[in-house]
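Morning. Coffee machine broken again, so started the prediction first thing and wrote up yesterday's gels while waiting. Chain of 272 residues, entered below exactly as on the submission form.
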Amino acid sequence: MVVARDRAQPEQTRSLDDYVAGWVTARSVATARDRLRRHRPTLDRVADRYGIPAPMLVSVWGLESNFGRFTGTYPTIAALATLAYDGRRPQFRSELFDALTILDRGHIPPDRMKGSWAGAMGQPQFMPSSYLKHAVDFDEDGRADIWTSEADVFASIASYLAAAGWARGERWGREVRVTRDVLDRIERDVRMRTSGCRAHRQMTVARPLADWTRLGVRLADGRALPRADMTASLVRGERRHFLVYRNYVAIVGYNCSNSYAVSVGLLADRIW
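Came back before lunch.
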């Protein structure tokens, strides 16, 4: 079962447009707004420390664990051992050892160390290596509890995004209008990225906004792109397209999927 789930991840098997439509719904927006209101004092303290806006933290939380309602039922050690044995991705072996380190240090009892089929744990869905690097004891009770403490969950997400390069005060990206003729010019004149994970390689290289304007890209509502001294990459869906900035790259660093990262950004925008 674990290996089968690994080979059928929705971020890779569904189109960007379909994935976004399935996640950024009226129901998810309403739930996100409710959680933002409910946890606003804690979220604001976390945002002040790490520079990650509260709506972005809620959005990541929502997509990772349905706002903390589903964190997984697979025993982490068993799931990682299965994936390590499968052998297709050797990083699971080191994740298994990191999970054992977490247990050895007493961060959580073995019977409570449960998560996704891939070994991702708690409400932020951290892999064990990410927990050891980024988990935060924000409520200062002596341990970074990403399973049950919302304060620790929000701070841990913020710690991860900050380490991934989040720039305080900047947006993640914006939806744009790209006609077939414009796409033809882009395909001819703008290179795709050739390094990084799969999501990076599905993005164009970063170009100044002025270059995108000259190529004919406009905002989704038809207005001209802003005259800002920024660079952006194009992420293409089947029908919807997005110019994305360096904060988008930080979201991709959290979960290397353009479907995921665009959904996170759009949901955060809806609850701002």
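The chain has two domains: 1-166, 173-244. Going to sketch it on the whiteboard this afternoon.
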